Amino acid sequence: MKIVRNLELHIIHNCNLHCESCAHYSNQYHQGLVTLGQAARWFEQWQGRVQPISFSLLGGEPTLHPQLAEFVPLVKKYFPHSKLRLVTNGFFLERHPDLPRFLRSYPRAELHISIHHDSPEYLSHLQPQLDLVFQWQREYEITIKILNSQKYWTRRYYGIGSQMEPFADNQPRQSWENCPAKHCLQLFQGQLWKCPPLAYLQLQAKKYSLSEYWQPYLNYTPLSSNCTEPELHEFLGREDESYCAMCPSNPKTFSLPNPITNISVK
Questions:
Q1: Which of 135, 201, 204, 241 is the most buried (most CB within 10 A)?
Q2: Which CATH number describes the domain made up of 2-246?
Q3: Centroid of chain to Cα 126
Q4: pLDDT tens track for 231-250
């Protein structure tokens, strides 16, 4: 069995926010969710082959999934030794009244609230959900972490929709060394993918007419569960690859526009 630092699952691709240059492309109006049955099949295929130190449930926005709470015991069943991280922007937590009970049953579970803007408008919308979260914390003694994501937001590509373009620094090693997602292994369509930008670029290509500059990255081959043990070890041991050149070699933070404001995508 191979130990991995972090394994992530998009349980849904929809998102209620439109964060410019989202590395998961969740600002570009994708749809679709993973059913509990699909997740169980994928977990079973990789159970005993990889052991994540942390297993992360995210999206998209996971609170838009009607069965969010039921993913918690599912992860616990197949990866009982992993720490569970549920990462959400928090806006629809009230839809899941059973969630704190499920989180309490998983001793190593954490609820991460990712804050994407510090404007009064944004925070006024979020405050009722934060009040709810801290009520859950008091009543159920669950672990809550607040992430000020907007402070560390970097540009991952240029443009949006069919006008989106990759970086052309052509320094894949430096891009990998500076990559905030280099330990964000994705479980997508039952396969393992190096990182979110490579995995969900497939969704972009299906929805938008991307330029030819994306083709080398669309040729990326994920790892299937029928791989051999040497193939698994080789895949997980990779650091920089040519595909890393799609991202910046020197990521720059920028002031994220209010993501509650809709962005026009063609």
A1: 201
A2: 3.20.20
A3: 20
A4: 999 999 999 999 999 999 99
